Amino acid sequence: MTPSSDDASSLGRRGFLRSASAFTLLPSLGTTKADLVLSNGQIVTMDPAQPRARAVAVAGGRFLAVGDDADVLNLATARTVKVDLGGRTVVPGFIDAHSHPASSGYKHLKQVDCDLRSIDAIVAALRERAARTKRGDWVLGFKYDDTKTTEGRWLRRDDLDKVSSDHPVLVEHRGGHTAYVNSMALALAGVSEATADPAGGRFERDPGTRRLTGRAAETAVEAFEKLIPSGLTRDERREGVKLISQMMARTGVTSVHDAYGTPDDLQAYQDARDSGELSLRVYCSVGQMHLPAMLAAGVRTGLGDEWVRVGFVKATCDGSISERTARLRDPYVGRPDDRGILILPEAALYEKLQPAHAADWQIGVHANGDEAIDILLRVYERLQRERPRRDPRFRIEHCTMIDASLVARIKALGAIPTPFSTYVYYHGEKMREYGAERLERMFALRTLLDAGIRPTQASDYPPGPFEPMMALQSEVTRTDMKGTVWGASQRITVEEALRVGTLHGAYASYEERQKGSIEAGKLADLVVLGRDPLKEPASSLVSIPIQRTMVGGRWVFEA
Ligand SMILES: [Zn+2]
């Protein structure tokens, strides 16, 4: 069951005591009776006033007290549940500040997971699905990754023609910015060799014959997407949210920022929460095309409660890092004419964001390449100049490739970068197209932290895996799965990576008083780990088992 949020919010309003002593208690709760006490643990609190503790007490879904075993156990009554942690390490629940939980949950429910190691295996999985799909209906796949297949080339329409000539087939790249279709899908969309590329997109052609390859990038994907019926009922959407929230809870994620929400997604999160099936907290952004409806309804950032809250308005400025379409100042390695794709130029971006800024929405814009970030910062600077807001917390979604002057402007604006947390480890093989020099200023946590900026952890799932332990290893080692180091100058410590993944995520959604650390008064979100990341060799952080995950005082995962 969902814990009572009434208790929690009234408690939040009354505030709480901060203390530098070894024991902090929340006196304003009106009770000192604990629902639950965890003792005999190594608790890494992320609270600077009390960095380590042995025990915590929980009441009404919040931390009641944090301190030594004896003091905290004193709060237990006959009805208190007591858990001996057996010396295990506890950290605050992880906050994934940019991912796509609802939409990926629906896909896990309905589509073929193409995270497979060969094109043959992908074709076989799609054929199997086509065999039980009505003639003429779409067969859809997701999480395809060209660099993870043995063939090491893009999927081609000829491959997908082997899946079926009676079904249109569309496979989405793991990065989400390119799609691969068969001949029937091209015909249905009326796309032929004579079709011009749309603004901000491209239908790829064979360089020799000019024949369409079946690969569509950025806005060109819309030609197919608009033909695909969503086909999801309200119940299925709730099911999809339940599924992904369970998948994430198993890895220690307790809060997510949905980076491209729709009104349907907001409904799905709320439905899952009402049925007790939501096991993580959601700060749900709203795609900019839905902004007019939100403004008309008088909705803005912050509406909601600790479980489901309206987040920032989201727009997209350039392409993707994993698919190598991000807009760069200098060309990709090996492709001297290719600097990536700019989706929204500066004037259009300003026009779309100005109404959101005027209505006091938080704004988050996808900007990966250094040129895209430069453009976005100019827009943010103009918005602030024209209508200064006290604490707009502009977000730069991904903010992958920076330099010293961009960092100075990010700092001056108080903007929040949300760089990919698991890309170095998981997508290492794609990094050579950026080159060694640029890797020293990509996902640049060391530089951002040293500048006093608050970057977050962000998986962007599906594009990146969401496991927080993989994020720690990726950020601390800057080493990929095969042992290659990318951008060693950006390494941070485990302690810093924990802060990025907890407190900074809370700050990015204006919830730093509610969560992100284990301290009296905050929401009782935590993770019990099988081993201590502060003592673990950096090269095996990814293998630390998650033993239990708690959200709002309730265990949502137990190994
Ligand atoms: Zn994203």
The number of distinct β-strands equals 24
Helix content: 25-40%
Q: What does the main sheet amount to?
A: 7 strands, parallel
Name every ligand kind in the structure. Answer: zinc ion
| Biggest β-sheet: strands ordered side by side in the sheet | 9-16-17-18-19-20-21
The structure class reads alpha/beta
Shape: globular
The tally of helices reads 19
What's the overall average pLDDT, rounded? Answer: 93
Q: Span from first to last CA?
A: 19 Å
Radius of gyration from the alpha-carbon trace, in angstroms: 24 Å
Strand content: 15-25%
Low-confidence stretches: 1-22
Summarize the structure.
With 559 residues, this protein is an alpha/beta fold. It is built from 19 helices and 24 strands.
Main attributes?
559 residues, alpha/beta, six-stranded mixed β-sheet, 19 helices, 24 strands, disordered N terminus, binds zinc ion
Can you describe this structure?
The chain has 559 residues and is of the alpha/beta class. Helix content is 30%, strand content 20%. Helix 9 links the parallel strand 16 and strand 17. The radius of gyration is 24 Å and the shape is globular. Zinc ion binds next to loops.
